[in-house]
Amino acid sequence: MELDRISSLPDDVTEKILARLPLKEAVRTSILSRKWRHKSDMLQDLVFTDTCVSTKSHPTFSFVNIVDHVLLLHKGPIRKFKLSFTGKLTTGDIDRWIFHLSRNPVIKEMTLYNFEGDFYNIPSCLFSFQDIIRLELFNCLLNNSSSTFKGFGSLKSLDLWFVTLSQDVFDNLIGCSPLLEILKLQICEGFINLKIDAPKLRFICIEGDFEDFNLVGSSNLVDASFDLQVIVDQRGNCNSFGNLLKFFDHQLPQIRRLTIKRNFLKYLSIGALPEKLPKPCQYLNFLSLDMNFDNPDEISTVLCLLRSSPALQELKILVDPEKDHAAVGEVESCLYDNYNCAYTQLRLVEITKISGVKAQLDFIESLLLSSPVLERMTVQPASVDGSFKLVKDLLLFKRDSKRAEIMVLDP
User: Which residues of 227-240 are buried (b: 16+ CB within 10 A; e: fewer)?
Assistant: First the structure.
């Protein structure tokens, strides 16, 4: 009998088809034909999520059985393993799966999201995956006591979210992963000194509290987001350099996208603030800031960044509406010199949660008067109160760009 078209497909074609299906559907293809019966046993990418479980059965029990079944029947190498189940899993189940994977050391990508329960203590065998390229952990304890661990030589992407690890483990993990390009640290604990020495790093996103923060050899960094609470003695930082100069000095020469959240902007504003950075951010074209207008030092910090970014095209500002009681004289002093500055590439501005106090309006007016190619400024009030007056004030402002339009969104 002539074979059907599905059965006669080349192996490389069937592998590509299976790789693009959810795991549950890929396993079901075993009923298509005799030739497909064991195709799913050779899958190199194993992604276990809530979609693997039927809503009619007990979710956790069924999920554990599915993972056990797939790993038991699996043949050949595993390139990617992802475990993302919103139910509660026992430590014994996860240990069993990771120990099974340790027999397959060529794994390239590992994702483990422990959504419910206590921190999952990662077994030491994870550190034997020396070919791993991407590692993502959520709600885990990374406590390697082995003195032989020297980082992951092939690691390019590291994402740690609610992960506890010691200072030594963190230093080894970063310092001994020379190919690291993407780093995400969100609410991690167990270490207080955040020194990152990763010469190939291109993207970084950090959120958390630390006593010290230092980027070393980050000349290739192009995209960065900082939501840091740096615990410092402010009086000890008020020197001739200042935190802004210390942070940008030789650290971000290639940066193109920069996001600075509220606490980190407050940290950068401590100490001496120049009118411009000694070395401008020549390639920065996107800047996002969380700021308030009751602190003249923060306003001066923002203006310094704007003056030092000649290629800036898009600016986003989120205002803290509860912090709008600045001394008018101090703010006017900050903004006075800004009218003589031109943002020659700025096209899009978005400012949200403004209350319409004079400091905010003066800042907006200075942007309109200093942006000759501005195309659109989008403004969103913090509340309905006073929004009509805000619209009238904005429409009265002069604009350097003849094409500039002002859009006011609903609060």
Answer: bbebeeeeeebeee
Task: Tell me the pLDDT of the chain (411 aa) as tens digits.
Answer: 455 666 666 666 666 666 666 665 656 655 455 555 555 556 778 888 887 776 555 566 688 888 888 888 777 788 899 999 888 889 999 999 999 888 876 899 999 999 887 899 999 888 888 899 999 999 999 886 555 667 788 999 999 999 999 998 898 889 889 999 999 999 999 999 998 989 999 999 999 999 888 888 788 999 999 998 887 654 444 444 688 988 887 678 899 999 999 889 999 999 888 889 988 999 999 999 999 888 889 999 999 999 999 999 999 999 986 655 554 445 555 565 555 678 999 999 999 999 888 889 999 999 999 999 999 999 999 888 878 888 888 888 999 999 999 999 988
Q: Can you give 170-186 as a three-state secondary structure string?
A: HHHHHHCCCCCCEEEEE
Torsion of CA 87, 93, 98, 99, to 10 degrees: 180
What does each C-alpha distance from 360 to 252, 262, 345, 380, 388 come to in angstroms?
29, 16, 22, 12, 16
Distance CA 110, CA 23 (A): 16
Can you tell me the distance from the alpha carbon of 48 to that of 52, in angstroms, rounded to the nearest whole number? Answer: 6
Q: Hey, which residues does 197 pair with through a beta bridge? A: 216
C-alpha to C-alpha distances, 22 to 37, 45, 52, nearest whole angstrom:
17, 10, 8
The first and second tokens of residue 400, run together, are 């350097």
Q: Which two tokens stand for residue 198?
A: 């990763």
pTM for this one?
Answer: 0.85
